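Workshop exercise sheet. Pairs work together: one partner reads the sequence aloud, the other fills in the structure field after running the prediction. Swap roles for the next sheet.
Pair: D.N. / O.F.
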Amino acid sequence: MNTRRKMLAAAVLLLLFAAAKLLLLNQWQQQRAPNAQNAVCKVTQGCTLPNGVYVKFSSRIAAKEPFDIELRGVPDTVGEITVSFSMKDMDMGFNRYKLLPEGGGVWAARQIRLPLCVERRSDYLADLNIGGTVFQTAFTAE
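Structure field:
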């Protein structure tokens, strides 16, 4: 009987932990999504975002291979730049890459990887956070 109570208590704790995780994840997604500005961009060809920053991903983006992201024309006072990836109606877990300054207004993230989709989808969303302003653009990986 004592073992049965321990197993029941462990199961209840696991369920509470899972529920708390789902609530926190939902809250995190709601906090980051509303302020994203839509940016239509062919990231492998490069484009200029509404804030004047030029963004370009490697010319080939494959889900299982590393690629690079480079921004040009970034103001010196920007603070921090990150990129994270998701899919419409699908949680991709926590994945955030920090871009590092390379000088002359150029920031880059090298050899980063996309989160893998268990449904084998290839329609990604990139959220570029440039100094607190988020630009979201859609792209397709090979």
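Discussion prompt: The chain is about 20% helix and 35% strand. What would you look at next?
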